[in-house]
Write a structure and sequence with these properties.
heterodimer; A: 449 residues; alpha/beta; 3-methyladenine DNA Glycosylase II, Chain A, domain 3; TIM Barrel; Rossmann fold; 3 domains; 8-stranded parallel sheet; 16 helices; 16% strand; B: TIM Barrel; two-stranded antiparallel ribbon; 10 strands; globular
């Protein structure tokens, strides 16, 4: 439970020594309560006070890192149930499962393909985060050999899946430096798995499908054995059980500060799906609803692209609408007689239009109005993309760039044409296509024609 | 061992139930939730989200995958509606696009004939959409409302600018208004209030907070729907209407679905990609409170129904 300033104050030295940079201990306590400063700024805090405050100020969901410095995925440390309440911070790691019973050449080619896969969206490169290697053979030698095959092709983070501590130990011996996630400690093997987690300093998944009480009990034992970096698997595999349990787990962590369950979650959509499409949609649900690591059983670009897009969308910070600076943007080295287009400063709008103009190979100028990050129709209906604003932006940004007086407006706001002709006397206002993808053909037919 | 108690929220509000059809026609009830989507452990969810399939009254220029999935019926709204029912539509969403001045500019008399024919051809309830052009919307929707008297159809879109006309038509013939606002909880509430002030019962309103497709603003729709649903469950009766999402239309008009060539290889195989675009949009939005999904592809319908079965299983 987050402590109030007064509660924190009780643990401070109360000397008002100002060494922390604040005039009083109470002022410092208030800053600590709002998480604006670190406790380490206080040089005189007692060991007991420090221990008590650190426990109390632990993030409600622990941040867990899988992988080593250069290649890693960080999950957890979420603070809200709904993204509009603040934002979701650490997007779930998407990893592909490989089985150690698959032929080596199959593993090599799949890992190479997936590790190299990357897709661009709104100027970002999106890709999968790593691999899960399953000890399906139940033999340590095959497990080790498969890990080596995967490692030969990629240094992306790994999840090692085996319920046999012997095989797990042999596998960790080969790749512990890259800090894979150990999956999983169960009620049968938790002591040995916890030992491995400590020995190799790798995070540990805890699997307990009997219920949340049993899961918390197992975590308590693992904690007592000295393991803190934990990922939880409550055993849910389908749509409704994972939604219920993941919601309950996040509520327990955030609303009840139930620290034994305050860890990121792992899910396996392929195990709860009957078809490939269902695996994708269950993965989509896990992205939206609280999974930290998602282990996929299938990969194709056509499946990865929409899932990576959803992850990007859901984890976009709603407090910072993706927006561009207002201004004029040249595309394909335009000249003074090149087409002039206008749109809003919602970055998705910009990337859609600029992408289309680029691929059409038409040189063009794109004037971006400040619509506070709203898209065309939304901005128009909110009165932030009207004739007056458009005319002002065109005069301000385009005057010294173009030699003509022809302006293309988005097709969805064709109603603005009349008013714009009044605001920009002498200009020809051309109504563009309603969708960005129509721009190429439009320029060809209407601008040239 | 610490005993874990499942944390429950004490919601004070409940989503209204809206009934489409009846009077000899199949009845579809949506809404009624006393908790967030599919959290059966917390509250009652009496009705499953319903699937509406889009049927256009003139042949659409759609992705070849969509057209191929439906075959020749896309030229015939009656045959199309029947096939949509075979494919599992709970509701037919009939789009009177032919009335668009840029299409055939059909008159209200012509579009009303189509409404009549589809009403007699299928026994599921109807949603009737105008062409999305203000003056024609009012004309064809008012005529359709009269023609469908007693059948309790939903009419859309009812926006701020035409809410008096559509609400009055709904009152006169006991229909439902689809109140559409641009991704804003306050505008959504305001429109519901305006429509109520005209005299339409809140039990005859569906909310359309505007659907953004995957990659094209889905996060805005997702979060506005979260906020609307949370406000409703917390007791704000003026946003406690069931929500409808036009998932098919929004997903299939995006470049990922429309464009077959000249796109990066990393986009993957076209048919699978475009299907998943609609399917993932649908599944994300039922998780933020959609009560009716308007879909296009039969495979999405099948998948969405199977997913809803699983999410409704206790």
């Amino acid at each position: 439970m987050a402590l109030s300033g007064i509660q924190i104050y009780k643990f401070l030295p109360k000397t008002n020594c100002k060494k922390c940079g604040f005039p009083t201990c109470l002022a410092f306590a208030m800053k600590l309560a709002s998480r604006e400063v670190e406790l380490s700024l206080c040089p005189d805090i007692s060991e007991e006070g420090k221990a008590a405050l650190e426990t109390a100020s632990r993030p409600p969901i622990r941040l867990v890192t899988i992988g080593s410095d250069s290649k890693k995925v960080e999950v957890g440390n979420e603070v809200v149930m709904f993204r509009h309440e603040k934002t979701f911070f650490h997007q779930p790691g998407l990893v592909l499962r490989i089985s150690d019973t698959e032929p080596q050449e199959v593993v090599t080619s799949r890992v190479s393909e997936v590790a190299a896969y990357s897709v661009e969206r709104v100027g970002l490169q999106l890709s999968l985060d790593g691999f899960a290697i399953q000890n399906k053979s139940k033999e340590a030698a095959s497990f080790v050999s498969c890990i080596e095959t995967v490692r030969a092709k990629t240094d992306l983070p790994l999840v090692l899946i085996s319920d046999d501590p012997g095989a797990m130990g042999a596998g960790l011996d080969k790749t512990a430096k890259s800090k894979p996630l150990i999956y999983a400690a169960t009620s049968d093997n938790w002591d040995k798995m916890a030992e491995l987690s400590k020995q190799y300093q790798c995070p540990l998944a805890v699997y307990e499908p009997q219920g949340l009480t049993e899961l918390a009990g197992l975590v308590e034992q693992v904690n007592k054995a000295g393991v803190e970096d934990i990922v939880l698997d409550p055993g849910a595999r389908g749509f409704v059980d994972s939604l219920s349990l993941f919601t309950q787990l996040r509520r327990l962590a955030l609303r009840k500060s139930f620290s034994l369950l305050g860890y990121p979650l792992i899910s396996f959509p392929g195990e709860g799906a009957e078809t490939l499409a269902e695996e994708a949609t269950l993965c989509a649900q896990h992205i939206a609803k609280y999974s930290g690591i998602i282990v996929l059983d299938h990969f194709s670009p056509a499946m990865a692209y929409p899932l990576l897009t959803l992850r990007l969308n859901i984890y976009t910070d709603p407090q910072k609408p993706m927006r561009l600076e207002a201004g004029i943007y040249p595309i394909n080295e335009p000249k003074a007689d090149s087409p002039l287009m206008v749109s809003t400063n919602f970055s998705l709008t910009y990337f859609s239009i600029s992408g289309e103009v680029e691929s059409s190979r038409w040189p063009g100028w794109l004037v971006i109005c400040d619509t506070e990050g709203l898209s065309v129709l939304t901005a128009w209906s909110a009165g932030k993309f009207d004739a007056e604003r458009i005319a002002k932006a065109v005069k301000q940004f385009a005057a010294d760039k173009v030699s003509h007086q022809r302006l293309i407006i988005p097709g969805r706001v064709s109603v603005l044409r009349g008013e714009l002709e009044e605001e920009l006397p002498g200009w020809e206002i051309m109504v563009g296509p309603p969708e960005a993808m129509g721009i190429g053909p439009y320029l060809k037919q209407r601008w040239a024609g | 061992m610490p005993v874990v108690e499942v944390p429950l929220e004490k919601w004070t509000g409940k989503i209204r139930e809206v009934t489409l059809g009846g009077n000899g026609r199949k009845r579809v009830v949506v809404g009624g939730e006393a908790t967030l989507p599919f959290l059966h452990f917390e509250g009652s969810i009496p009705n499953r989200p319903a699937i509406a399939i889009e049927v256009d009254d003139c042949q659409p220029a759609w992705s070849p995958h969509l057209t191929a999935a439906w075959g020749d019926v896309v030229a015939d709204p009656v045959g199309w509606a029947k096939k949509a029912v075979e494919y599992g539509a709970d509701i037919i969403a009939l789009y009177l696009k032919s009335a668009d001045p840029d299409e055939q500019n059909s008159s209200a008399a012509e579009t009303t004939k189509v409404v009549d024919k589809v009403l007699s051809a299928v026994d599921v309830p109807l949603i009737i959409y105008g062409p999305g052009v203000a003056e024609k919307d009012n004309e064809v929707l008012v005529a359709a409302a009269d023609a469908a008297r007693g059948q309790r159809v939903a009419l859309g879109n009812c926006e701020e600018k035409n809410h008096r006309t559509i609400a009055a038509a709904c009152i006169a013939s006991n229909h439902i208004a689809i109140a559409r606002t641009p991704i804003d909880i306050n505008l959504a509430k305001q429109l519901n209030i305006l429509i109520s002030e005209v005299g339409l019962s809140p039990n005859s309103i569906l909310m359309d907070p505007t659907t953004g497709a995957l990659g094209y603003g889905i996060e805005y729709s997702y979060s506005i729907m979260d906020r609307i649903r949370l406000a409703a469950l917390s007791g704000d009766a003026m946003v406690a209407m069931p929500m409808i999402c036009t998932v098919g239309e929004e997903s299939w008009r995006q470049k990922e679905a429309m464009v077959t060539s000249g796109v990066p290889d990393s986009w993957g195989e076209h048919e699978q990609r475009s299907l998943l675009w609609e399917e993932i949009t649908a599944v994300a939005l039922i998780n933020s409170g959609a009560d009716i999904l308007v879909l296009r592809h039969p495979k999405t319908v099948e998948l969405a129904k199977a997913t809803i079965d699983k999410l409704m299983a206790r």
